[in-house]
C-alpha cells in the first residue's frame, strides 16, 4: 500500500459537477479512483483530465457494493471519499495533510454542508469521510451507505475535525428532491427487510417526509422514538419531525409535546427552539414565544457553523430568525423587540426591505408603481409580515393590487391567499375571492382561519351546504382549538338561522 491520500468516488453522468469536485482536491490527493456505473455523458472525459484511475462497475442497486469496489482499488494510506456534487472547502484542503501524521487507526468526522436555495435553509451533517485505509473496512447499506459501523468493529478511534465539504446536489427543485427520495425509499425498504436497522428506518422516515407522505413519516418516527437502540441525537430528530408534522396540521398541543422532548434530548439546536417559539405564539403564549425565540437567536450567534455535538443540524439563516422576531414583535406590540430586529436587519443585505416595511407600516404607498422597486426584496421569510401590513390599508383597491402582485410570486403561501381573498371580497369581488380559495383548497385546508374565511363567503353567497361541509371539517380536524371551535359554533348558529330564514322566505305552492 502506497503512502498518501486516495480519493475514492463512484459516479454516473456527473459532467455537471465532477470538474469542480476534482479541482477542489487535485493538489492534496495522491490518487484519484473513479468507479463509473454507466455514464453516457462527458463524465469520464473530465476524470481523465485529472489523471484519474477509472474502473467500471455494473450497477446492482447497491451503493455500498460500488463503494467497496472503489475501496479495493485505492492504494493510499488514507481514504477521502466524496460524491461528484461535493467539493472540499479551500481551507480544509490546506489542513487535511496534517491529519495524516498519526499512526493510529483513525476516522475523522467531517461536516457536509448541503445547500437549498429553494427553502433558503442549509443542512449540515457530520460523517466519517476521511479515514486510514484498511482492507477489512467495508461500507454497509444499499443507500445512505456508511463506513462507520465497519470502522467501529475494527476499533478505529473517531475524531471530530473541522474539515468542511460543500454539497450542492440537493440545491434542486422540489420535484428533483422527490425523485431522489423515491429512489432512496425503494433501496432503504429493501435494506430494512434484510436487517431492521434503526438508522435505516430513520432514513425511511426522512424519505417519506420529503415525499410529503406525512402519514407514513409520522408512523415511522413514532416507532423510532420508542426505540432503545436509536442514538439520542437521532431520537431528538425523530421528535422534531413529529413536531413539524403536528405543527403543520395545527395540532399545537402535540407539536409542543414532541419538540419539548427533542429539546430535552438536545438543547443545542436553534431550529428546535424556533419551532417551539412558533408553537407558543400560535397558542397565544407570547412571553414563552419570546423566550424561545431569543434562545434560538443566541444559539445561532454562538455557533460558528456547526456544533460538534450535533451530527445533524438545520442551519437557520439570520434573515429567517430576524424576520420571525419582527413578526413576533408586531403581533405582541413589543416596541423594543421590533426596534432591535429592525436594527439587526438594517446591518444586513435586507436594507431595501426594511425601507419597504417602514413605508408600508405608515401607509405611504398609494399606487402599485410605488412598490414595484421593492418586490425583489420580498422573500418567504418576510412575506407574511408584509401581507399583514398591506391588508390593513384603508385604500382597498391598492391593497388588492399589491396582494395580486405578491400572489403571483407566492402563490402557495396561505397568508397571501387568504388576505388576498378577504381584500377581493371587501371590494365586492366575492366571486373572485371564492374562486381563489377553492382553487387553492389543498394549500389552505390546514389553516382553520382560511377555512373560516371560505365559510364566510359561502354563507354570503347562500351556499349553505358547502358552508356546513367546511364547518364540519374544521370541527373534526381542529377540535383541540377552543377558540376555533367557538367560532365554528357561532358560524353554525348563523348557518341554521340563515337556512331557517331562507326557507321562511320561499313561496308556498
TrEMBL record:
Residues 8-130 form the Glycosyltransferase 2-like domain. Gene3D superfamilies: Spore Coat Polysaccharide Biosynthesis Protein SpsA, Chain A, Tetratricopeptide repeat domain. InterPro entries: Glyco_trans_2-like, Nucleotide-diphossugar_trans, TPR-like_helical_dom_sf, TPR_rpt. Keywords: Transferase. Pfam families: Glycos_transf_2, TPR_6. SUPFAM superfamilies: Nucleotide-diphospho-sugar transferases, TPR-like. The keyword Transferase applies. GO terms for molecular function: transferase activity. It comes from the Bacteria. CDD domains: Beta4Glucosyltransferase (cd02511). Belongs to the glycosyltransferase 2 family. WaaE/KdtX subfamily. This is Glycosyltransferase. It comes from Ignavibacterium album.
Amino acid at each position: 500500500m502506497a503512502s498518501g491520500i486516495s480519493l475514492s468516488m463512484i459516479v454516473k453522468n456527473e459532467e455537471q459537477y465532477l470538474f469542480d469536485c476534482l479541482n477542489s482536491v487535485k493538489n492534496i490527493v495522491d490518487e484519484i479512483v473513479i468507479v463509473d456505473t454507466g455514464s453516457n455523458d462527458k463524465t469520464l472525459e473530465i476524470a481523465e483530465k485529472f489523471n484519474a484511475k477509472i474502473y467500471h462497475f455494473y450497477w446492482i442497486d447497491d451503493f455500498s457494493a460500488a463503494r467497496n469496489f472503489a475501496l479495493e482499488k485505492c492504494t493510499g494510506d488514507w481514504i477521502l471519499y466524496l460524491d461528484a456534487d461535493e467539493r472540499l472547502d479551500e481551507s480544509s484542503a490546506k489542513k487535511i495533510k496534517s491529519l495524516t501524521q498519526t499512526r493510529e487507526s483513525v476516522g475523522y468526522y467531517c461536516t457536509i454542508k448541503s445547500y437549498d436555495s429553494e427553502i433558503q435553509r442549509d443542512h449540515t451533517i457530520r460523517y466519517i469521510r476521511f479515514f486510514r485505509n484498511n482492507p477489512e473496512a467495508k461500507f454497509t447499506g444499499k443507500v445512505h451507505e456508511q463506513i462507520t459501523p465497519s470502522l467501529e468493529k475494527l476499533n478505529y478511534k473517531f475524531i471530530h475535525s473541522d474539515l468542511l465539504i460543500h454539497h450542492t446536489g440537493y440545491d434542486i427543485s422540489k420535484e428533483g428532491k422527490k425523485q431522489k427520495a423515491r429512489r432512496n425509499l425503494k433501496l432503504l425498504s429493501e435494506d430494512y427487510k434484510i436487517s431492521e436497522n434503526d438508522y435505516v428506518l430513520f432514513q425511511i422516515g426522512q424519505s417519506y417526509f420529503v415525499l410529503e407522505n406525512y402519514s407514513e413519516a409520522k408512523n415511522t418516527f413514532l416507532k423510532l422514538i420508542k426505540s432503545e437502540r436509536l442514538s439520542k441525537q437521532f431520537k431528538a430528530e425523530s421528535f422534531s419531525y413529529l413536531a413539524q408534522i403536528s405543527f403543520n396540521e395545527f395540532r399545537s398541543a402535540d407539536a409542543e409535546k414532541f419538540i419539548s422532548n427533542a429539546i430535552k434530548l438536545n438543547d443545542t439546536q436553534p431550529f428546535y427552539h424556533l419551532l417551539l417559539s412558533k408553537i407558543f405564539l400560535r397558542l397565544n403564549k407570547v412571553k414563552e414565544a419570546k423566550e424561545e425565540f431569543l434562545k434560538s437567536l443566541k444559539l445561532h450567534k454562538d455557533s460558528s457553523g456547526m456544533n460538534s455535538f450535533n451530527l445533524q443540524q438545520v442551519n437557520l439563516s439570520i434573515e429567517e430568525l430576524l424576520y420571525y422576531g419582527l413578526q413576533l414583535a408586531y403581533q405582541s406590540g413589543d416596541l423594543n423587540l421590533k426596534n432591535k430586529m429592525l436594527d439587526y436587519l438594517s446591518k444586513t443585505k435586507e436594507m431595501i426591505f426594511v425601507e419597504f416595511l417602514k413605508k408600508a407600516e405608515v401607509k405611504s404607498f398609494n399606487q402599485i408603481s410605488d412598490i414595484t422597486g421593492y418586490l425583489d426584496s420580498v422573500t418567504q421569510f418576510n412575506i407574511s409580515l408584509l401581507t399583514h401590513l398591506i391588508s390593513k390599508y384603508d385604500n382597498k383597491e391598492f391593497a388588492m393590487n399589491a396582494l395580486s402582485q405578491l400572489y403571483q410570486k407566492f402563490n402557495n403561501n396561505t397568508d397571501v391567499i387568504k388576505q388576498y381573498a378577504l381584500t377581493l371580497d371587501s371590494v365586492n369581488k366575492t366571486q373572485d375571492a371564492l374562486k381563489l380559495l377553492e382553487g387553492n383548497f389543498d394549500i389552505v385546508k390546514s389553516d382553520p382561519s382560511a377555512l373560516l374565511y371560505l365559510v364566510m363567503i359561502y354563507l354570503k353567497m347562500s351556499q349553505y351546504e358547502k358552508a356546513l361541509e367546511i364547518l364540519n371539517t374544521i370541527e373534526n380536524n381542529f377540535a383541540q382549538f377552543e377558540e376555533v371551535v367557538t367560532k365554528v359554533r357561532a358560524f353554525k348558529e348563523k348557518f341554521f338561522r340563515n337556512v331557517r330564514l331562507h326557507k321562511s322566505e320561499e313561496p308556498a305552492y
